[in-house]
Structures are given as C-alpha cells and as structure tokens.
Amino acid sequence: MDLAATSSASAASGAPLRARLDAALAQVNRVVLGKPHPVRLAFACLLAGGHLLIEDVPGVGKTTLAHALAVTLDLSFRRIQFTSDLLPTDIVGVSVFDRDSGAFRFQPGPVFAQLVLADEINRATPKTQSALLEAMAEGQVTVDGASRPLPQPFFVVATQNPLDMAGTYPLPDSQLDRFMLRISLDYPDSEAERSLLTGEDRSTLVDRLVPCLSGEDILLLREQVRTAQASPALLDYVQALLTASRRHPDIRTGLSPRAGLALLAAARAWALLDGRGFVIPEDVQAVFAAIAAHRLIASRHLPREGLAQDLLGSVAVE
User: Fold this and answer.
1) For 117-153, what is each residue's pLDDT tens digit?
2) Edge-to-edge strands of the sheet including 52-55?
3) In terms of CB atoms within 10 Å, which of 28, 175, 244, 248 comes out highest?
C-alpha cells in the first residue's frame, strides 16, 4: 500500500484546504482499519479545539491513532508514558541551575508539543494526572510562578485502560470534564483484523505517512468551525438534551453548561467534516455519546453509554 502516493497530490501546497482535510481523514483511516467513526470523532475533537480520551484495552490501536494524527497533520509530537512513579515535573518541566550563567534555566517538559500522547494516563497518581489540567484548560503551564504558553494548536490525546485492570487510578471528574470527547476503538471486525494479520506492521505504515495539513491549517479550520451556523431550532434541541440529562431518574449529575458548549462545538466540527457550514440534528446525534457518556454520573450502577443513548431516544427533534 503506497500511502504517500495516495496523499502527495492533496498535500501539495496549492491544493484546496477542503481537499487536504479529506485526504488527511482518508490517510488515517488507511492505518487505523475499520474504525471510520472513532477516527472521524478524533478529527472533530481536534477541529473543535478539545482534547481526546481513548478508553480501551491494550493493543487495539490507540497509540497508532495518535501517531498517525501527528504525522498526517504535521504536528510536533511527544509521548508521555504514565506510570505510578511519574512526577508532575516530568510532564511540565523544571528549572535547573546553570553554573555558567549563575541563574536558573527552564527545561521544558514533553507537554511542550502540539500533539501530546498521554499514554495510559490512569496508571499515574491523581497528583500527576492533574499536572495536565492547566495545560488542557488554558494552553499554558505555570512553573516557578511563571506562565509559559504551549505551542498552538495544542491537542492532548490520552489513553486509558479500563478501571478494572490492575494498577489504575480513576481520573477525577474535573479532569474527565476537560476531555471534550471520550471514544473507544474496540476490537476490529473480522475483515479489518484479517488485513492487520496479513498486511504491513502499523508502525511501518506510520513511518511512510506524509503530511496532508499543517498546524496553520488546523487553526484556519478551527475558525471555520466556530463560524458554522446553528439555528434557533438546533439550539433548542441541544438545550432539550441538556435538560433531559438533568431530569433523568437514573442520572444523579447531568450535563453542565460546559458540556453543552462542547456538544455544540463538536457538532459544528462534524458538520465541517461533512462539507457543511451549518449544523443539523444528525451532527449533534453523531457526537452526543462521545461528549456525554463520561460526564454523566448515574444514580445506580448503569452503563454510561446506555444512558447517553437513552437521552437521545427520549428527546424528539422538533
């Protein structure tokens, strides 16, 4: 499979931005096989200016997806392997004393990249997990009283093992809420798995990817997302979903106003990926479960994904 040949034309500087976005999406789908919906959700999250949480068992392609995104979008990339002994300074950096100058010099940590892969984030302690909060919320980190801006665009892709696996710490609700979307890749279907078994190694394919977009392109696309039109009727639908989550008998804590903003932003990004400058209810429905499930707190032991689907089914489109 010659990935470079299929993308080089669209990656040329003269190609329209829309064509290069389509080429980027197609290229990542050639590496992460059989997962078009999760891959598209990842693009929507990036274009909406959010951060992505991927929860799944090891070995289903979470890290491959992050690598493919970084190369395809031509973003600087750093991977942080979260372990129980990882410290906050291992993420944000530390000031070290320079004997030559007689002053402290800041040594940036791996968070100073455009795409940061926080691998197995829930294997680290809550204190270390929280080191990402300021970076994700404000696009900067504060070290020794000085605020240091992070490169833009800034996108965190965090992977998380299921909480019933050994050596994991649950993410606090405040940090879960900082992830705009949570997705799962799950096991591939039989056709995709056969292609994985008989095809090239995924890391080899990633090495052969070519950039289709740039960081500047991503910032331009984010501006287009922000200007996508949402009609009053569409906003009524979004508000009805938020209200339903707060009144559902099996939900103790429903969706916050911040979740509503995330839902609208992700729906706008989904519309852009469809080539539209306006949002329709189907855009909201496509991203709703990934936006809502990890934010809902059930009043009894129920799967959050099921609650999100119940909410969608309980609110009619006017």
Assistant:
1) 999 888 888 888 888 888 898 899 888 788 899 999 9
2) 77-81, 115-119, 155-160, 52-55, 181-183
3) 28
